[in-house]
Specification:
The protein is of the alpha/beta class. The chain has four helices and five strands.
């Protein structure tokens, strides 16, 4: 999802700078490589004009799209959460699964992770009112850092794997995706369908 959306943004505005943050440098490279390969995919010819031009940046961690203007920042830059965030500039920052069991075991570890991730707010291009940050992730504990985001001004949406029962709604803190709420309003039986009446798969 993160890679596809980033490429979608570059398709519509090749001058954008996409900055992605992942749990590790390895995961960051995987995300960047996935996005870069979309531009070469023979089944997606409408993306081929975005392939980097000869002589422009084109490596795993950072690359430019063909129509991009000459600019200091690459069209796409990916780093791990412990990498160098300061100095980057972005119209879109995607934080993709930065929380893992390994880096969020203790309150101190979660505080440190949230502090590192919050530095991405400083990367937003100051004269772009549409610049945004998107956090994608899965709760790794009851005290997940993602619970802190609403208090920091972010809108939150949760897409569980199954439609929740009415008794389970409080656990979603009012953040269940509106599309799922609408589907439950139309068909309440979705909450009790499926294996063991655990709810239909969303």
């Amino acid at each position: 999802v993160a890679g596809a959306y980033g490429v979608f943004r570059l398709l519509h505005n090749p001058s954008d700078n996409i900055f992605t943050l992942s749990a590790s440098a390895e995961k960051a490279d995987e995300l960047s490589l996935f996005a870069r390969r979309l531009l070469d995919n023979p089944m997606l010819p409408f993306l081929h004009h975005l392939q980097p031009k000869r002589g422009s940046r084109d490596n795993i961690a950072r690359w430019d799209v063909g129509p991009a203007p000459n600019q200091q920042m690459p069209s796409w830059k990916s780093i791990g959460v412990e990498g160098q965030i300061q100095g980057a500039r972005s119209n879109l920052c995607i934080l993709d699964d930065i929380e893992t069991l390994a880096n969020s075991k203790t309150p101190a570890a979660r505080d440190n992770l949230l502090k590192q991730a919050a530095d991405t707010e400083s990367t937003k291009v100051p004269d772009d009112p549409t610049a945004q940050s998107i956090w994608l992730g899965t709760f790794q504990s009851y005290d997940s850092i993602y619970k802190e985001l609403r208090d920091r001004g972010f809108s939150c949406r949760i897409w569980p794997s199954r439609y929740p029962k009415p008794d389970d709604m409080p656990a979603y803190l009012g953040c269940l995706a509106p599309s799922l709420l609408a589907e439950l309003d139309e068909n309440p039986g979705l909450a009790t369908e499926g294996e063991g009446k655990r709810g239909a798969v969303t």
